[in-house]
Specification:
Low-confidence stretches: none
Mean pLDDT: 93
Largest sheet: 8 strands, mixed
Strand content: 15-25%
Radius of gyration: 23 Å
Number of helices: 16
Distance between the termini: 49 Å
Strand order of the largest sheet: 5-4-15-16-17-14-18-21
Shape: globular
C-alpha cells in the first residue's frame, strides 16, 4: 500500500458536509467536532426525521461506548443527568426457540486462564454445563442490582463489564449538544444532488443555497440518499416490521434488556430512567399476531429491509450506520457497527483529495465488520428447533457461513473458540452465546487433568461463592442510579 501525504498542491479536504438526522448523524457530528483536525470545516445538514428507523439501532450499547463517548465529548455523568440512559450488563434472552431457552448474554472481561488453559475446559472437566453462575454480570443482572465494576483484580465483580441501556432520541440529544460550537448546522432540505464521474459535486437546498464539500458523510439512514445517488448497489430482501412504545415507571428495573421469542418474532423490554421502552420485531406477514401480542397501540411503527451496500465509501461519499447497512437489533450489533463506522472514518480522514487508499481501507473494514456481526446474529438461530412461522423461516433461510460452522463445530468438539481478525464481538461474547444456545464441548483440553480435580472443584466453588457474596452486597439498579445522580448534582459536575 502506498502512503498518501498532503502536498501544497493537494492540501487534502478542507470541508466536510454531514447529511442526515437521528442517532447516526448526532454521534458522527460529535465525534468529528471533538476529533477532526481543527483546520477542517464541518457543516451538518439535517435530513428527514429518523426517529422511526432509529429503533433498529436497538437499545443496548457495548462496553466500548464509554471510551467512544468520552472521545466524542460525552461523559457518563452527562448521560446520567441529561438523558434517560441507564446501565446495562447485557441482554436476557427468554423463551428462545421451541425449547424456550433462557440465558443472560452479558458483557465480560476475559475469563480466567488457569495453567495456560481457557476457563471453559475446567467446566467441561467438572461436567458443569452452565457458565452463568461464574459470570458476576449475569448473576447481578438477573437479580436487578448494579455497581460499577472495581478495577482491582481481586474483587469478584472486577471481570464484569457494562454498557448502557438507551433510548435513541434521548441518548442522541446529548451528542448533538456536544457537537455544538464546532459544527455549523443547517436546516434546509435537499432538493437536488449533482453528481458526475462517481462523485457528488453539490447539494442544492430548498433555500437556494448550493452546498459543496470535499467529503460528504451520509447519515440519512436506510434511505441512504447520498450513497444511493452514486449508484452503489444495496443487497437485501428480508423485510422486518417494528412496533415501539414506552410506559412510564418511576423505579428503574434490572440492568438487562429482556428479549423474548415468540411465533411472530421477538419483543424487547428495556428499562430506562423514568420509563420502560418496548420494541416488537416481526415478519410483515405476521403483523396481526405481533399487534395482538403487543396489547397496546404502538406509538411508532416502521418497516425496513435488512441488508448492506456493496461498499460504504464511494467516490467522495462515506455512508455511516444504517446508510451503509441495516442490521437486526436482536443483539447490540447495530450500535457496535455504528461506533466502528464512525471510528474508522476518524482514523481514515483523508489527507489527500484522491482518497483512494483511505477508501479501500474503510471498505475492507466495513465489509469485515458487517460479515462478522452477521455471524453472531445468525448464531442465535442455530442449534434449536424454531417455530414454523415466516419470521423464523426467513431468519434461517440463507446458508450458514462456513466461518460460523467452524465456530460451532470446534466449540462443540473441543471447547475451542475460533477467532478471526478484528471481530466486533469478543471471545467471551461467543462463549457465553454458545452456552446459552445449549452448545457443550464434547471433551476438554487434557492439560486440565494435570491439576487435581478436587482443587479445580474447590476453585470453582469459591468463585461462585465470591460472586454470590459480592452480588448480595450490591444495591438495586434503581437505588444505585438515584445515589449516583444525587452525588453528581451535589458535586456540580454536570448541569442537569
Amino acid at each position: 500500500m502506498t502512503e498518501q501525504t498532503a502536498t501544497p498542491s493537494d492540501p487534502g479536504p478542507q470541508h466536510i458536509v454531514l447529511y442526515g438526522s437521528g442517532l447516526a448523524a448526532q454521534m458522527t457530528a460529535a465525534a468529528l467536532a471533538h476529533q477532526a483536525p481543527a483546520s477542517l470545516r464541518i457543516t451538518w445538514l439535517g435530513g428527514s426525521d429518523a426517529s422511526a428507523t432509529d429503533v433498529f439501532y436497538g437499545s443496548v450499547t457495548p462496553p466500548s461506548a464509554y471510551d467512544f463517548n468520552l472521545a466524542a465529548g460525552v461523559s457518563e455523568p452527562q448521560l446520567v443527568l441529561q438523558s434517560n440512559t441507564a446501565f446495562s450488563f447485557g441482554t436476557l434472552y427468554k423463551d428462545w426457540g421451541l425449547d424456550r431457552a433462557s440465558w443472560a448474554q452479558t458483557f465480560q472481561l476475559p475469563f480466567p486462564i488457569l495453567e495456560g488453559v481457557p476457563f471453559q475446559h475446567y467446566l467441561t472437566q467438572q461436567a458443569i454445563y452452565e457458565i452463568e453462575p461464574y459470570l458476576a454480570s449475569a448473576v447481578a443482572g438477573r437479580r436487578g442490582v448494579f455497581a460499577h465494576p472495581p478495577e482491582g483484580q481481586g474483587h469478584a465483580l472486577s471481570r464484569a463489564e457494562y454498557g448502557y441501556q438507551i433510548e435513541a432520541s434521548s441518548y442522541g440529544a446529548v451528542f448533538e449538544r456536544a457537537a455544538s460550537g464546532r459544527v455549523t448546522k443547517l436546516a434546509a432540505a435537499v432538493t437536488r444532488i449533482d453528481q458526475a464521474a462517481g462523485e457528488i459535486n453539490a447539494l442544492h437546498l430548498a433555500d437556494g443555497q448550493r452546498l459543496t464539500a470535499d467529503l460528504y458523510v451520509d447519515c440519512s439512514g436506510p434511505e441512504a440518499q447520498l450513497i444511493s445517488t452514486l449508484g452503489v448497489p444495496f443487497n437485501g430482501d428480508r423485510r422486518l416490521g417494528a412496533l415501539a412504545d414506552f410506559t412510564l415507571r418511576a423505579e428503574l428495573g434490572a440492568p438487562l434488556r429482556t428479549v423474548t421469542g415468540d411465533a411472530f418474532g421477538w419483543s424487547a423490554e428495556t428499562t430506562l430512567q423514568g420509563k420502560v421502552a418496548r420494541l416488537v420485531v416481526f415478519d410483515p406477514d405476521s403483523e396481526d399476531q405481533a399487534r395482538q401480542a403487543h396489547e397496546e397501540s404502538a406509538a411508532l411503527q416502521t418497516e425496513l429491509t435488512l441488508g448492506h451496500h456493496d461498499c460504504a465509501w464511494s467516490g467522495n461519499c462515506v455512508a455511516i450506520g444504517q446508510a451503509a447497512a441495516v442490521v437486526e437489533p436482536v443483539t447490540p450489533a447495530p450500535l457496535i457497527l455504528l461506533q466502528r463506522d464512525i471510528q474508522r472514518l476518524l482514523n481514515l480522514l483523508p489527507v489527500s483529495r484522491r482518497m483512494s487508499v483511505e477508501r479501500k481501507a474503510f471498505n475492507r473494514g466495513y465489509v469485515d465488520d458487517y460479515q462478522h456481526a452477521g455471524l453472531f446474529n445468525r448464531a442465535l438461530f442455530e442449534g434449536f428447533d424454531f417455530p414454523d412461522t415466516p419470521y423464523w423461516h426467513a431468519a434461517r433461510l440463507a446458508p450458514v457461513d462456513e466461518r460460523l460452522t467452524a465456530k460451532i463445530e470446534q466449540f462443540e468438539s473441543r471447547g475451542l473458540h475460533v477467532a478471526f481478525d478484528l471481530e466486533p464481538f469478543t471471545p467471551e461474547d461467543w462463549i457465553i452465546l454458545h452456552y446459552g444456545m445449549g452448545r457443550r464441548p464434547a471433551r476438554h483440553d487434557r492439560v486440565v487433568d494435570r491439576a487435581s480435580r478436587e482443587k479445580v472443584a474447590q476453585y470453582l466453588l469459591c468463585m461462585r461463592r465470591d460472586i454470590d457474596q459480592a452480588v448480595n452486597s450490591m444495591p438495586s439498579h434503581s437505588t444505585y442510579m438515584q445515589g449516583l445522580a444525587r452525588f453528581l448534582k451535589q458535586q456540580s459536575l454536570v448541569t442537569p
